Amino acid sequence: MSSILVIAEHRRGELRPVSLELVAAANELRAAGEQVVVGLIGKNAHAFVAAVSKEGVDEIATVTAPVEDFDPDVSEEAVRALIAQYSPSLVLIPHSVDSYGYVAVLAAKDQLGLATDVYKIAREEGGWVATRGGYGQKVAVELDFPGRSCVCLAVRSGSYKPNEAAASPTVTAVDVPALQARSTPLDYIEVSAGGDVDITTVPFIMSVGRGLGDEANLPRFKELAEQVGATLCCSRPIADSGWLPKSRQVGQSGKTASACKLYIAMGISGAIQHLAGMKHVETIIAVNTDPQASIFNVAKYGIVGDIFEVADALEQEFS
Amino acid sequence: MKILIAIKQAIALDEDFEIRADGRDIEEDFFLPDLNEWDEYSLEEAMLIKERHADTPVEVVCVTIAPDSADEALRKCLAKGADRAIRVWDESMEGSDPVAIARALAAVAKKEAPDLFFAGVQSSDHAHGATGIAVAGFLGWAHSAVVARLDYTPGAKEVALKRELEGGLSQELRLPCPAVLTIQLGINKPRYASLRGMKLAAAKPIETLAPGDIGLATNDCGESGSLARVRRMYVPEKQRAQILAGDVAAQAKALAAIIREATGS
Ligand SMILES: Cc1cc2nc3c(=O)[nH]c(=O)nc-3n(C[C@H](O)[C@H](O)[C@H](O)COP(=O)(O)OP(=O)(O)OC[C@H]3O[C@@H](n4cnc5c(N)ncnc54)[C@H](O)[C@@H]3O)c2cc1C
Questions:
Q1: Residue in chain A lying closest to B250 (CA)
Q2: Collapsing DSSP states into helix, strand and coil, what is residue B73?
């Protein structure tokens, strides 16, 4: 029987929410009679069975790994074994730092169709069609996979609404004897606010990006943020340069502006990893000289203009 | 000891760009090429290893799979201190996806036999995040993606590194060598090329190879060597922000009103 395989992702004992988004995607894409199988890989894979027992899942396949933490070789070999067992035409994997580490290796070795950071999937007569962004997300790129009977897609989180309704799928333990990790995991390290403000809790953020240009321009934005009552945050290049602490970086590898209601993005282009931390905010205002900047796709209001001129004028409004 | 670095001339798009007649790419006239931002960091990381271990000679070699328009990116790397630059190309490579590019990079790696292979986490244009790691597949080497710190002594059997994860988390780990690593932004502070460096780079040769020279057959390259094919490119319909009209004073007034309403101040 044909199937769609979803690879669930977990870290430090918790299922990552994108896993359930992929379950929903698989369920939406399945043809009549097609099975949706969720693959769980881990030292204690069974622990996640309840968390992925959702409507639309026919079977959960657990693979017991020799290591607790993610290892690219273990994931590669385990997914290979799951593909051999279930012959899926489509494998859905979260587009994440973990999958960055092994999906392309698996696809290259086994010559499977491959696309990453996919946000739309369609099924056509000729096979699967995946859509992703190109040229800094300025265009959409449609890919197909001629001659590939199995296609692996790494799917961007937030592309599908998670399936929350519980169900009781069959659980099968898949034995993969040859699993061996080459990496030796040591410690996890967390960026802490360390006495500074916790940006996940603040309601109003003004964020500066590379448009700031120079560290010497930072103080006036600090003052402006204070004047309007906002917490000053930033995109990655500003934190990487050490101009603001890493704990103030908004985005995928930084923090999510979880409690934010108003977000002013100053000189930020709107890269997908930045959006991951703020696109949910109710009122986003973007100031950017480039009228085509992607930040305007998520902003409610936009100013096409220079952040320094806007900062000057805004300062006058509040003085 | 040798470090091989994958380099890409990445493309930004000029305003008002147009889709190519066949609908599968953008007209080249609108391309604004530059060295991929991530590659600045992987080159710098290799240069730091070279400079920190002056007792062991470390050769830093850059390689790109691209037509001669990418020579500029390689020259930039040479100007920053890379020892050699290699470019592989012929028409059969047109239409290569990240995996076809990776196969060619791996073929160069087999020839050059480096101790470490670096690539950027992704490229600033298409952001596949796949090319560098796929090289590890073709070589069978240990690998790690999104490396945000690296400790390596030339000749060592292992590297110690920090892998950047999501949400401000990272993980330290060790990996056996040789290894393929994809390097993340912020791992170091990339240097600028000096005037002297640029002069020296202009005189250095770029070694050019054809796929056949590195043992690739025609069907290893281009679309036949790829796992995906671009069928169509288009500008998606998007929800756009409401653009605040008027001069900057009027825009600031409107912005202030939005702020006051949202904050109730
Ligand atoms: C695994 C991974 C994780 C990442 N995590 C994060 C993350 O957590 N957070 C994050 O932010 N990024 C993250 N990134 C990086 C991300 O891809 C982008 O590189 C980054 O967000 C770009 O920041 P930016 O928008 O400030 O800079 P740019 O993309 O360079 O944009 C600068 C913008 O400023 C505008 N501008 C310039 N001058 C002016 C002016 N005077 N007035 C007005 N506008 C001006 C320009 O038009 C441009 O749009 C991550 C990347 C990867 C691969």
A1: A313
A2: helix
Count the alpha carbons within 13 Å of A278 in the hemisphere toward its beta carbon: 38
The reply to whether ligand 1 has any atom less than 6 angstroms from the CB of A255 is: no
Instruction: Per residue of chain A (319 residues), give pLDDT as tens.
Output: 699 999 999 999 999 999 999 999 999 999 999 999 999 999 999 999 999 999 999 999 999 999 989 999 999 999 999 999 999 999 999 999 999 999 999 999 999 999 999 999 999 998 999 999 999 999 999 999 999 999 999 999 999 999 889 999 999 999 998 899 999 999 999 987 777 899 999 999 999 999 999 999 999 999 999 999 999 999 999 999 999 999 999 999 999 999 999 999 999 999 999 999 999 999 999 999 999 899 999 999 999 999 999 999 999 999 8
Find all residues with CB under 8 Å of B257, minimum gap 6, and list them.
Answer: none
The CATH topology of domain B2-225 is Rossmann fold (3.40.50)
Q: A284 with A308: CB under 8 angstroms?
A: no
Adjacent-strand bridge partners of B118: B5, B181
Domains A3-173 and A204-318 equal at CATH topology level: yes
- The complex's ipTM? 0.95
CA angle, A20 then A155 then A253, to 5°: 90
Residues in chain B closer than 8 A to A259 (CB atoms): none
Cβ-nearest to B248 among A117, A261, A309: A309
Reported as type and span, the H/E element at residue B104 is helix B98-112
Write the DSSP symbol of residue B223. Answer: G
Q: Do B227 and A73 touch (CB under 8 A)?
A: no
Range list of H helices, B148-247: 195-203
**Angle subtended at Cα A239 by Cα A233 and Cα A240, rounded to the nearest 5 degrees:** 160
Chain A residues inside the 8 Å CB shell of B239: 297
d(CA A161, CA A21): 5
B160 CB neighbour count, 10 Å cutoff: 16
User: Per the structure block, which two tokens stand in for A77?
Assistant: 């070999």
Query: Considering the entire predicted model, what is its pTM?
Result: 0.96
Torsions phi, psi for B54 (to 5 deg): -60, -20
B232/A141 Cβ within 8 A: yes
| Torsion over CA: A94, A95, A97, A102 (sign) | positive
Q: Which of 3.40.640.10, 3.40.50.980, 3.40.50.1220, 3.20.20.70 would CATH assign to domain A204-318?
A: 3.40.50.1220
Distance between CA atoms of B74 and B201, rounded to whole angstroms? 9
Between chains, do B128 and A117 touch, taking CB under 8 Å as contact? yes
A3-173 carries CATH number 3.30.360.10: no
Q: From chain A, pick out residues whose CB is under 8 angstroms from the CB of B163.
A: 97, 101
CA dist., res. A312 & res. A221, Å (int): 10
